[in-house]
């Protein structure tokens, strides 16, 4: 398993009229944690994209357990619990202290610069084999 934990402080602009975090912001925070997770294992998105590959989001799901509020200090965790083959499923949790606020998943696949599905670059497959021994 690989994972990254990223601290987030809720900005006023990230809340809605009801004073809770607008739902779309969770996806942005998921991206922050996901890209950090890949960077932490030596697979920064910047390199992957420079090599002509992209990892679009194919599916997303979120489950709201409790609301996040303005100025909350949160921790967003992204993790790969199983070795990816063609698709990459990333799981997420958002916590305020010990309180679980949101869980979610995203599904990704590699595409080339023309949008065609492709296998992951060899160095990604090698890194996944190394991490998921």
Automatic annotation (TrEMBL):
UniProt xrefs under InterPro entries: 4-hydroxybenzoyl-CoA_TE, HotDog_dom_sf, YbgC/YbaW
GO molecular function: fatty acyl-CoA hydrolase activity
Family per record: Belongs to the 4-hydroxybenzoyl-CoA thioesterase family.
Upper taxonomic lineage: Bacteria, Pseudomonadati, Verrucomicrobiota, Opitutia, Opitutales
NCBIfam families per record: YbgC/FadM family acyl-CoA thioesterase
Organism domain of life: Bacteria
Name the UniProt record assigns to this protein: Acyl-CoA thioester hydrolase
Keywords: Hydrolase
Signal peptide start-end: none
Keyword Cytoplasm: no
Source organism: Ereboglobus luteus
Keyword Hydrolase: yes
Pfam families in alphabetical order: 4HBT_2
